[in-house]
Write a structure and sequence with these properties.
By secondary structure, this protein is mainly alpha-helical. The protein has one helix spanning about 5-75. About 95% of the residues lie in helices and about 0% in strands. It is rod-shaped and about 105 Å long. The termini are far apart.
């Protein structure tokens, strides 16, 4: 095999490898964007759960206060 032919073969192989790398870089960029969106969604959900737990705790405290008042005035 001549040197020119080997160089041409390697050049084509390198071009294919470079194309594959470009596709992989584009895919990785898409994956990073998807992960950022998932992270944002999860952080919003965490805040929602904290708010829900705070409201549930506050309503439990108010309910127990009224039950205590009811029990106190009815002499039970």
């Amino acid at each position: 095999m001549s040197v020119e032919r080997e160089l041409a073969t390697h050049s084509v192989e390198i071009r294919h490898i470079q194309d594959d790398m470009d596709k992989m870089m584009a895919d990785m960029s898409d994956i990073k964007k998807s992960l950022e969106a998932i992270n944002l969604t999860l952080s919003e959900a965490k805040g929602g759960w904290k708010t829900l737990m705070w409201v549930a705790g506050a309503s439990s405290a108010v309910t127990s206060f009224f039950i205590g008042l009811y029990s106190f005035f009815n002499g039970r």
